[in-house]
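Please produce the structure of this protein holding nicotinamide-adenine-dinucleotide.
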Amino acid sequence: CVPDGERGLRGRVVLVTGAASGIGRAQVLRFLEEGARVVATDRDAGGLATLPGAGDGCLTVAADVTWREDVARLVGTAVESHGRIDVLSNTAGILDGFARSLDTSEELWERVFAVNVTAVFRLTNAVLPGMLAQGRGTVVNVASVASFVAGGGGAAYTASKHALLGYTRQLASDYGRRGIKVNAVCPGLVETGMTRERLAEPESRFMKAATAVPSGRYGQPDEIAAVAVFLAKPDSDFMQGAAVMVDGGLTIR
Ligand code: NAD
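Below is the modeled complex.
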């Protein structure tokens, strides 16, 4: 019999970005169910306040992950409150309105990369030294089917999600032997704040894309959160640099 603390996440300190909505929010609920101590962060303070357990088992920190000072304050607050960070889930991300390259301003390109790539790099670098010092740590990056195929976003989004997967693999390669597990979950189309408006239009390309996949439907945030939590658990400890597709089969054909 293996004690829950060794196989599960009881007592582990988990930092989730993008926690106010969609896939991040669903992860917070699952991690809390697992008995983890969750630090939930988002730039949407109002959304964070509606998390069940906010201010109780779940510490909420309003922060914009593209701001250096916010990232430093966020990691400082988490470590001050819980002594360490065991799991980092980089979930915050933004879409680019499906803009083709010629319709993408440099400002939009930079905004998308700032959240989807640079913030992940910055936050990971802020958390990694503590993980390395304790000889153990897990990073879960929420990438996308757009890390593999075109059409899941516009030019900036698809490029950013390819970059995020590349970063995930390099991190795994560089730190795997030092006790750090790094993997990506790659969602297909999921009903969240990012997609809800488009999904509400029955004739939208979103809806058509959703029903064209082998599963015949779009996903729910909890179906992605379940895999993110698995990637955080010791059960997945032999997974390293993996990209786990959770896409209703979108990328198999
Ligand atoms: P969402 O819009 O519901 O949630 C994203 C959250 O990130 C929001 O709460 C938002 O406030 C937060 N956020 C955005 N920029 C931020 C910043 N600078 N600082 C702090 N917080 C910030 O969308 P979601 O679908 O739950 O997205 C979560 C992740 O899943 C994203 O990385 C997205 O690219 C990825 N993803 C989503 C889908 C989908 O179909 N919904 C598909 C593939 C990948």
